[in-house]
Write a structure and sequence with these properties.
614 residues, alpha/beta, FAD/NAD(P)-binding domain, 7-stranded mixed beta sheet, 5-stranded parallel beta sheet, 20 helices, 15% strand, globular
Length: 614
């Protein structure tokens, strides 16, 4: 018989693993959060009344005449993915590159996110791309968002990507013209751009997520999303005191990355901060520190790629001589993947051993909460009760301690916020009066289907749209090309038949290199246009389906999150899996792409030479 337990008794106080008790506690916490409508969000691209939340507060909008021009390559997206592929195209000798983005500047998520104390949760020495090419060393192990943005701007400058870029410009349609053998891109600025190649580089976190809480329009105070931080209202800056919040009461909705990073500066500026939490997170030690003066002394050419590979190998549980990064990701995230399987264990026994290791990891996180948060009730509400990878883990060194400040109050509302009123929010039957509401609700998940992330109509051969082609799931070769969409390449990402990396920059650089070298190869061999054959695409799709690891049962036990489709893992599709199953075989995938390029025979593609008259 399973005994009823709480935070201070049984396995959650002693560290003893009682499988039945732990599972019962985890399921009870999950069930509190399985309520209808919890995953509803506003379609800000569809003219929602809150669509103005997407406006750019950082760069003035300037009118300009429409352009009618030709390009070798048009890149949709000027964030990290677009910048990486743009730089690689330059290195491959491509001259006429046009980048298109709705933002007023370069950087993607690092352009839009400028909230106080913004940082990356992946080590800067492997996250910032092309450090060796730019001869740059980050100032800290985990640098600020502004340093990341400035580094991306430096790449743009070095590879001359700004000149032909069309910023504050939204692509309305990209259409393959059969007669011209060109992509024709039309924008909301009246532009018509014809391109030999189209690259979709819209990134994985590009769609702001805003909830549909009743009464949001009734609030008479100030409200904004963390991805459009309103410094006009708060005053200050990313590293400056938010002086205009003095005497004000602020409500922060969410406890994800943007909330945990901005809480300390908010608590040091506002009279009162309420943090409204639906589900607590596993928040590990960040361990940030300045870059040691002697860090560069032992580095040899190729050090960054070697370090990226080392990190990826540790994350996948592969053997390495040393863990070069040695952080929360490689210590906790990778721990279950390092468990050596005894040949005598059955699959069930192996799963149980992993479950025990997972419990140890989560107990360490819960213990950390109890050690750092003084108020017992607040600490209890901040303790995460789920398997480690039910939610993307977070890392921070000040968030939990902020709840010891008398002006910071946690509002635990697993059932959600009842409504927004004209004066604040109604939660747990009580109204909190607020001067400002900050929606720290992040972005639509990485697994958001590509056609939605692309955010405009992509029309291939015969008038078939990308949304129609991918209606039943991803349909590609490598996750980077799709039959019926000639001369189009897609930057690899989760949910589209490529592989997954914790360090997205690693995958982006591999994808950028492959696309750029393929474009150069096509030019060198005088290919006018190429298209994936249906046979090659079908074979790739089948390989994804055949290696799909159905985690529906395990994910169904998780608390609702973006990892398990907000509590609906049964809706996840095998066609949206990764090459090699699970997270994917990153190193095998990279070798496969390199072998294809080295062969130079365009296997899996139908190719057409440039007509003689041209």
């Amino acid at each position: 018989m399973t005994e009823t337990i709480d935070e201070n008794d049984g396995p959650f106080g002693s560290g003893v693993f009682d499988r039945d008790a732990v599972r019962a506690k985890y399921l009870a916490e999950r069930d509190k959060r399985l309520w209808e409508g919890r995953a509803d969000i506003r379609d800000l691209a569809g003219g929602d009344e809150f669509a103005n939340y997407r406006d750019d507060p950082f760069t003035p909008f300037l009118e300009r005449p429409a352009v009618d021009e030709d390009a070798d390559v048009v890149i949709i997206g000027a964030g990290l993915a677009g910048i990486c592929v743009g730089a690689q195209l330059r290195l491959a000798g491509v001259e006429n590159i046009c980048m298109i983005d709705e933002a007023g500047g370069f950087g993607g998520t690092w352009y839009w996110n400028r909230y106080p104390e913004l940082m990356c949760d992946v080590e800067s020495y492997i996250y910032l791309p092309m450090l060796e090419e730019l001869d740059y060393m980050p100032t800290r192990k985990y640098v600020s968002g502004e340093e990341i943005r400035q580094h991306l701007l430096a790449i743009v400058g070095k590879y001359d990507l700004a000149g032909e870029a069309r910023l504050h410009t939204r692509s309305e349609s990209s259409t393959w013209d059969e007669e011209l053998a060109r992509w024709v891109i039309r924008t909301d600025r009246g532009d018509t751009i014809r391109a030999r190649h189209l690259v979709l580089a819209t990134g994985i976190l590009n769609l702001m997520k805003l909830p549909t809480i009743p009464g949001m329009a009734d609030f008479v105070g100030r409200s904004f999303h963390t991805a459009r931080w309103d410094y006009e209202y708060t005053g200050g800056g990313q590293k400056e005191k938010l002086h205009k919040l003095e005497g004000k009461t602020v409500g922060v909705i969410g406890t994800g990355a943007s909330a945990i990073q901005s809480l300390r500066p908010l608590s040091e500026s506002a009279k009162q901060v309420y943090v409204l939490q639906r589900t607590p997170n596993a928040i590990g030690v960040r361990g940030d520190c300045p870059t040691p003066p002697d860090f560069c002394e032992t580095l040899e050419p190729g050090w960054q790629k070697k370090r990226m590979d080392n990190f990826q190998a540790v994350i996948l549980g592969l053997p390495v001589e040393a863990d070069l990064v040695d952080d929360g990701w490689t210590r906790d995230f990778a721990r279950t993947r390092r468990l050596q399987r005894d040949p005598s264990w059955s699959p069930r026994e192996y799963g149980q051993r992993i479950e025990e290791v997972d419990f140890e990891i989560m107990e360490e996180h819960r213990t950390r909460v109890g050690d750092l948060v003084h108020d017992a009730d607040t600490a209890a509400a901040l303790k995460p009760y789920f398997r480690y990878m039910c939610k993307r883990p977070l890392f921070h060194d000040e968030f939990l301690q902020a709840f010891n400040n008398p002006n910071v109050t946690l509002i635990d509302c697993s059932g959600g916020i009842e409504r927004v009123t004209d004066r604040g929010v109604l939660v747990n039957g009580e109204e909190l009066e607020l001067d400002c509401i900050i929606y720290a609700t992040g972005f639509e998940a990485e697994m958001t289907p590509l056609p939605r992330r692309v955010n405009h109509n992509v029309i291939g051969s015969g008038g078939v749209t990308l949304a129609e082609k991918w209606a039943d799931g991803s349909a590609s070769l490598w996750g980077m090309a799709s039959s019926g969409f000639p001369n189009m390449f897609i930057m690899p990402a989760p949910g589209q038949q490529a592989v997954v990396t914790v360090n997205y920059t690693h995958l982006a650089m591999e994808g950028a290199e492959h696309i750029a070298q393929t474009v150069a190869l096509l030019k060198d061999q005088n290919v006018e246009w190429c298209d994936v054959t249906p046979e090659a695409e079908n074979a790739w799709c089948q390989s994804i389906i055949d290696t799909w690891i159905d985690g529906t049962a395990a994910m169904a036990d998780c608390t609702p999150s973006r990892i398990n489709n907000e509590g609906r893992p049964e809706d996840m599709r095998p066609r949206d899996g990764n090459w090699g199953g699970g997270f994917g075989d990153f190193f095998g995938y990279r070798q496969l792409l390199a072998d294809w390029r080295n062969a130079g025979d365009f296997a899996g593609f139908e190719v057409h030479a440039v007509p003689a008259e041209r």
